[in-house]
Specification:
The complex is a heterodimer of chains A (about 190) and B (about 230). Chain A is about 20% helix and about 35% strand. Chain A has 3 helices and 9 strands. A 5-stranded mixed sheet of chain A has the order 1-2-3-5-4, covered by helices on one side. In chain A, strands 7-6-8-9 form a 4-stranded antiparallel sheet, with helices on one face. In chain A, strand 6 and strand 7 form a beta hairpin. In chain A, helix 1 packs across helix 2. Chain A is globular and about 50 Å long. The two termini of chain A are about 25 Å apart. Classes of the chains: A alpha+beta (about 190), B alpha+beta (about 230).
């Protein structure tokens, strides 16, 4: 699987060694494990399945994303990440093919060493593929950090993320290379983005 | 008849207006709705503000309390935002624990506070490792008509500028045999304003069908929503 970068003038274009495995869990309809360096996320997809009446949408499938942190309960941070992943998956999935159904995507953080949101996005895409859910496009996630010297670092580790002044995660469409979702934190100029 | 068309074909409904470079409520693409601000309306809060962007109404109340700083940041205070979307503001929200949108909005505001450095958290520290201020910022939406995050940022900034809090004098710990804990002396006579370093401004844009559509008012069916927060 090739992942190309189109970041302008970064110091470090090298992504960490990544690994992906599909169909590793027996119960979910689709599952995948995605590793970026030491960051590892396990994804499981259930669906299309029955949906609760209060959650059903008449013409499309209801996608629910759950991100479980490695330690502790879910907090607001996980909710914000869930929203990012859900919005991206909804844009990629052909949910109108399964009206009044539910799709559940569960992401378990196995280890967080930076670039967690992009690892979640990648694991989500691979798991949705493994489940055989119809998608209009595939997507990948990539994280960039701008450090104190205004250098752009791609796929930062946890230590680099702590020291950077801005952190950006993008979900990029595989077909047209458009940006599907961007989540940024910290201060940076428009040119840097 | 227009209401029927809007429900049946929402995309076509919005496209028909965008062709004329305007929007269903008559605004230009780059035009914001009328914004009004009411400062200091809540007397029991240390700082408060109410903002109305068109029909969207958001109120923020800030309470300052005392706490011990955390061990990994002993010279910093806390700013804790919480965005609440009660069923009052829109039929899309149900009673119960905070939903995903409310929690994601809380995280967004927390990131804006950290990233834009509105207030230096070091200024909230009274005595290193012993005492600091905690600012609990409660942001409640009273009427949800789109563009929630812009309104939250405006009301938070206004309430922070409104806040006046007691200045603090901490007694030095006295060395006695009973090992008394240090007492804090609150000086009610002297209040001071918080120093605001940067003032973030949020603008939300929607991209509809590859054409740029302006500041976001209603939940139509846009292709892409960008929340952009810049500061001076």
């Amino acid at each position: 699987m090739k992942m190309e970068q189109s970041v302008c003038e970064p110091v470090c274009t090298v992504l960490r060694e990544y690994a992906c495995e599909q169909n590793i869990l027996s119960k979910p309809d689709g599952s995948a494990s995605f590793k970026q360096g030491d960051t590892s996320v396990l994804a499981g997809v259930y669906g299309p399945a029955e949906v609760k009446v209060n959650k059903e949408i008449y013409d499309r499938a209801t996608l629910e994303v759950v991100i479980q942190p490695k330690v502790g309960m879910q907090s607001v941070r996980e909710r914000a990440r869930e929203q990012c992943v859900r919005e991206t998956c909804e844009a990629a999935l052909l949910s109108t093919l399964h009206p009044r159904s539910s799709l559940t995507l569960v992401l378990q953080v196995v280890h967080d060493d930076g670039s967690l949101l992009s690892c979640c996005l990648n694991a989500a895409c691979m798991a949705l593929m493994d489940a055989g859910l119809p998608m209009s496009r595939l997507f990948c996630g990539v994280t960039c950090a701008i450090d104190a010297e205004s250098q752009i670092i791609t796929d930062p580790t946890a230590q680099q993320e702590k020291e950077c002044r801005a952190l950006m995660t993008f979900a990029i469409d595989a077909k047209d290379r458009n940006v599907m979702m961007s989540s940024t934190r910290g201060s940076f100029s428009v040119e840097e983005e | 008849m227009a209401a029927g068309f809007k429900t049946a074909e929402p995309l076509e409904y919005h496209r028909s207006f965008l062709k004329e470079n305007c929007r269903p409520d008559g605004r230009e693409l780059g035009e914001f709705r009328l914004t009004t601000l009411n400062i200091g309306s809540i007397n029991t809060a240390d700082g408060s503000a109410l903002v109305k962007i068109g029909n969207t109404t958001v109120i923020c109340g800030i309470k300052a309390e005392l706490a011990a700083p955390s061990t990994d940041a002993p010279d910093k205070g806390y700013i804790v935002p919480n965005v609440d979307l009660p069923p009052l503001c829109s039929s899309r929200f149900r009673p119960g624990p905070p939903g995903e949108q409310a929690q994601a909005a809380s995280q967004f505001i927390a990131d804006v506070i950290d990233g834009s450095k509105i207030i230096k958290k070091e200024e909230l520290c009274i005595e290193k490792s012993k005492l600091c201020w905690v600012l609990y910022c409660d942001i409640i939406c009273l009427d949800y008509d789109g563009n929630l995050l812009d309104a939250c940022v405006i009301t938070l900034l206004a309430a922070l500028k409104n806040i006046t809090h007691f200045s603090f004098v901490v007694q030095l710990p006295t060395v006695t045999i009973n090992k008394e804990t240090d007492l804090a002396d609150v000086d009610i006579q002297h209040k001071r304003h918080l120093h605001i370093n940067k003032q973030p401004v949020a603008s939300t844009f929607a991209v509809f069908d590859d054409d740029h559509s302006g500041p976001y008012s209603r939940r139509g069916k846009p292709g892409f929503i960008v929340n952009y927060c810049s500061h001076r």
